[in-house]
Amino acid sequence: MPAPARFLVVLDADSTLIRNEVIELLADEAGRGAEVAAATEAAMRGEVDFAASLRSRVSALTGVPVEAFARAIARIEPTPGVRELIDAVHARGGRVGVVSGGFHEVLDTVAPDLGVDVWRANRLAVADDALTGEVDGPIVDAAAKADTLREWAADYGVPIGLTFAIGDGANDLRMMAAAGLGIAFNAKPAVRAQADVVVGRVDLAEVIALLPR
Length: 213
Prior knowledge:
Elements: E1 8-11, H1 22-29, H2 33-44, H3 50-59, H4 68-75, H5 82-91, E2 95-103, H6 104-114, E3 118-122, E4 124-127, E5 130-135, H7 142-156, E6 163-167, H8 173-178, E7 181-185, H9 189-194, E8 197-199
Parallel strand pairs: 1-2, 1-6, 2-3, 6-7, 7-8
Antiparallel strand pairs: 4-5
């Protein structure tokens, strides 16, 4: 069991923890970046089922070589203020989690580099050193994000009222509703409308003022 924490902050990854949408970076490798970007935007607005959309977008990655992960990681831009936020959470006795509809293959490098304590994401199936176009295992969707926040809160002994969820897309809404405080960040209109707090500037350091002292 992990050591208890005073509070828990859980972020989405793509367009929240980082500025990028990783699936679009990978789709660029297959020459299908624009097509996948349009599908991602529709999913984040909540216009299509996330799991079905993800499977469709991942199918566009069929044949992309696994070395594309390194190229994608090299293009990742951490969101302004992310290191300041994570440092502040740790200084105040909290923990930081990231739960993502993106991919472990990238988050496993990016998350520890930024100081994230725990993370969960989808995995991509690989055969013969190339992507098969399928997701490996259960999809991390809106329900899984909410369940993960609750699970991590229990693991760290944090009351649900002292959990903070930060997200931008429709698949973050259930996680935000489950948390003590749901924070819309760099968010779509539907997410801003349902959030407890809206952060307008694309600077995660803005969240520090909302944390327990």
